[in-house]
Amino acid sequence: MKVKYMFFIGVFGIENKQKEICEVNQVQCKNCEGISSGKLYKTFQCFHFFFIPIIKWNEEYYLKCNSCRNIFRISSEKGGNFEKGMGEELTYWDLEEVKNNYGSDATEDKIICQSCGASIDNKYKYCPYCGNKM
Fold first, then answer.
1. Do 81 and 20 belong to one domain?
2. What total number of domains does the chain contain?
């Protein structure tokens, strides 16, 4: 008598994700101090099962200036409106500058990757998400 067993192998996990939302025009950059455009990104963590996202949390929105490549955090409310297609104007006051890599102190715990916008430990020489040199 032969007994056959069926094994179910599930693929699940938690990962940090980034999604490009849209291109934003006519933004006054706090770093360039000029009118520029930028890309709006959403970063979040999600639990996935068989590569299907089940739960999302820690959703944050960032604007990356196309001129100086500086990264700014914007409110979840404004970022959510852009994601839904109800984009409104971003003003100088909506941009919260994120400490950039160029000149971040060694005592800082986290830095933001200039390439992908991920928040990572300052001990890395390369971003673990996109491979960009820090």
1. yes
2. 2
Residues 47 and 73 occupy one common structural domain? yes
Q: Which residues contact 91 (CB under 8 A, 6 or more apart)?
A: 28
**Whole-number average pLDDT of the chain:** 78
User: Residue 49 is encoded by which pair of tokens?
Assistant: 């099962």
Taking phi over 0 as left and psi of -120 to 50 as alpha, with beta for the rest, 58 belongs to left
The single-letter code of the amino acid at 80 is G
| Shared domain check, 59 and 29 | yes
Neighbours of 78 (CB within 10 A): 18
State how far the Cα of 101 lies from the Cα of 122, in Å rounded to an integer: 9
**Distance from the first to the final alpha carbon of the chain:** 61
Each residue's pLDDT tens digit, 38-91: 899 998 888 888 778 888 888 999 998 888 888 899 999 988 888 888 877 888
